[in-house]
Amino acid sequence: MKNFIALLTAGLAFVSSAGAQSPAETMHDTYCVVCHGTEVYTKDMRLANDYKSLRAQVDLWQTNLSLNWSNAEIDTMTAWLAQRYYGLTCSAEC
Ligand code: HEC
Fold first, then answer.
1. Is the minimum distance from the CB of 34 to ligand 1 under 6 angstroms?
2. What is the pLDDT along the chain (94 residues), one digit of tens a residue?
3. What does the pLDDT look like over 58-84, one tens digit per residue?
4. How far apart are the C-alpha atoms of 16 and 91, rounded to whole Å?
5. Ligand 1 atom showing the smallest separation from residue 81 Cα
């Protein structure tokens, strides 16, 4: 019985972590929705038209906010936005 409960608990923990936010989404909710929602990523006349300019926007905003993100963090956020909102894929140079 004890084992069964342990298994059940482990199973529940697995299910709830599967529904958890990605690190990029958490970073985004924490720092990026203060001024705009996600509608800026899908509007007409977007500032970012390709992966490189999207990354430049992410870098600009993390610099503006003094977040001191590493290149890896900028890449994580760029990849998340690119895939989820912009429908962009990373080309050869990134
Ligand atoms: C101080 C306010 C503010 C914060 C905080 C902010 N932004 Fe922005 N962001 C703006 C404004 C203003 C624009 C320009 C919106 C427009 O052109 O309609 C913009 C535009 C953008 C764009 C370009 C959208 C396009 O047109 O393609 C991206 C990408 C972006 N922000 C990402 C981020 C990310 C990532 C963060 C968190 C690190 C962030 N922003 C935090 C104000 C902010």
1. yes
2. 555 555 545 554 544 455 688 999 999 999 999 999 999 999 999 999 999 999 999 999 999 999 999 999 999 999 999 999 999 988 766 6
3. 999 999 999 999 999 999 999 999 999
4. 34
5. 29
H or E element at residue 53: helix 51-64
Q: Give the number of the atom of ligand 1 that is nearest the alpha carbon of residue 77.
A: 35
CATH number of 22-94: 1.10.760
Give Dmax (Cα) for the chain: 61
In angstroms, rounded to a whole number, what is the distance separating the alpha carbons of residues 87 and 51? 10
Q: Where are the domains of the chain?
A: 22-94
93 CA distance to ligand 1 middle (Å): 24
